[in-house]
Design goal:
Strand 1 (22-30) and strand 2 form a beta hairpin. The protein has 3 helices and 6 strands. It is of the alpha+beta class.
């Protein structure tokens, strides 16, 4: 069911309704914390040739929701706020992790072991938020170039 979810559901919806999102799926990755294998979706904005936005969709089983992170490697929270503070979505929380800052947005929980059809609307919400975070990454790159 997992492959069908990602290939026939998620990828097809992304291509049909969000063609500006360049999606790459890393299938069958091994978790370092369990025996479970998982799929990692990765997105790239067409205007950022070499920069891949790492978007993490993490389900939070106890909370019944998930979240998306986009990591700005090597950027402090202060630097991100200075460069794109007004563009940060109101519902985003800035999270620091190992010298990087990640805007985090809560999204509906997506479970790849459940039928895609039951979660299609949730996937649309997630992909809209992916687009919003990628737009933020473009703004950050442009602001950083202009401030040099």
């Amino acid at each position: 069911m997992e492959i069908r979810f990602w290939q026939q559901g998620y990828r097809q919806l992304c291509k049909a309704e969000f063609p500006d999102l360049l999606l790459h799926l890393h299938l069958h990755l091994q978790s370092s914390q369990s025996d479970k294998k998982y799929t990692w979706p990765e997105f790239q904005h067409p205007s950022l040739e070499a920069i891949v936005a790492e978007l993490y969709h993490k389900p939070e089983p106890k909370l019944g929701k998930g979240h998306l992170d986009i990591q700005f490697t090597g950027r402090s929270e202060e630097e991100v706020r200075r460069l794109v503070g007004s563009s940060i979505p109101a519902d985003a929380e800035l999270v620091q992790n190992r010298g990087s800052t990640s805007p985090r947005i809560e999204v509906p929980r997506i479970m790849d072991d459940l039928p895609f059809e039951r979660q299609e609307d949730h996937v649309r919400v997630v992909l809209r938020q992916v687009r919003q975070l990628l737009t933020l990454s473009v703004a950050l790159v442009q602001a950083a170039r202009h401030s040099q």
